[in-house]
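Q: I'm writing a short methods note and want an example of a predicted protein-small molecule complex. Could you take the sequence and the SMILES for NAP and return the bound structure as tokens? Please keep the output block clean; save any remarks for afterwards.
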Amino acid sequence: MELKGKVALVSGASSGIGAATARKLAAHGVKVGAAARRLDRLEQVVAEIHAAGGEAVAIAMDVTDAAQVAAGAKKLFDAYGAIDIAFNNAGLMPISNVESLKTNEWHRMMDVNVKGLLNTTAEVIPYMKRQGGGHIVNTSSIAGRKVFPGMSVYCASKHAVTAFSEGLRLDVAAKYNIRVTCIQPGAVESELFEHISDKKYREQMEQLKNEMTFLKAEDIADTVLFALMAPQRVNVAEIFVLPTTQPW
Ligand SMILES: NC(=O)c1ccc[n+]([C@@H]2O[C@H](COP(=O)([O-])OP(=O)(O)OC[C@H]3O[C@@H](n4cnc5c(N)ncnc54)[C@H](OP(=O)(O)O)[C@@H]3O)[C@@H](O)[C@H]2O)c1
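A: Understood, no commentary inside the block.
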């Protein structure tokens, strides 16, 4: 499908997978709303897109705050007159053993990874229905298919994303012409590990970089692009994409 002129809301666009996808979409002629909380980082991404001849606006938006999400979507619509694509990608992974009882981190993961994604989805669906279609792409994870020690709450949050994506597709794809894609990456180079407060797990995750060649954020951006560019009759529902050298 031709992407030129389409309008996309990209959450988590201030770093990692979201920033790479914002750049990639803009390079294919998509008008991008680059959304996250760190406005300075978003403005950097937007400046790079403009310098490369693309179109983008920075949208300061905390996905856990439904009013901010509504204002962000409106800002994008006011700028470009449509919302055709939503990449629900904002997320965090402060992992630890359950017995550590880091309950604030558990709640934060559920708030951002699950409820934040629900907030954005709820906000874009009415725009897409009015336009007669759209495409929602959700970032789940290998942790949305398998469970790993020390990652129970993160895995629960990403299993919720996987399940919700499939349910969403059942509810809106045929009825409203809204395609739904769930992407499940393995290990990707990004800032994701920086929020792990548990020293043991932070070291364990950093150690993985010596054991395999991580995917680059651009690899996931390419995956998003693949799903978006498929003909309208094709709904790429799930994509599981892993480093070749990832042994699990
Ligand atoms: N890296 C991996 O190995 C991997 C593997 C599988 C899945 N994933 C998933 O990929 C997604 C992107 O992560 P990443 O690897 O690119 O990590 P990252 O570089 O840390 O990016 C996370 C993004 O989420 C945004 N974010 C966090 N909390 C937010 C909030 N409350 N409201 C709005 N935005 C928020 C951050 O922006 P601000 O801080 O500026 O708000 C940032 O842009 C996440 O859903 C992650 O779970 C990552």
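A: Remarks, as requested: Residues 11-18, 36-38, 41, 62-64, 89-93, 112, 116, 139, 141, 185, 187-188, 190-192, 217 surround NAP (CB under 6 Å). The chain has a mean pLDDT of 98.
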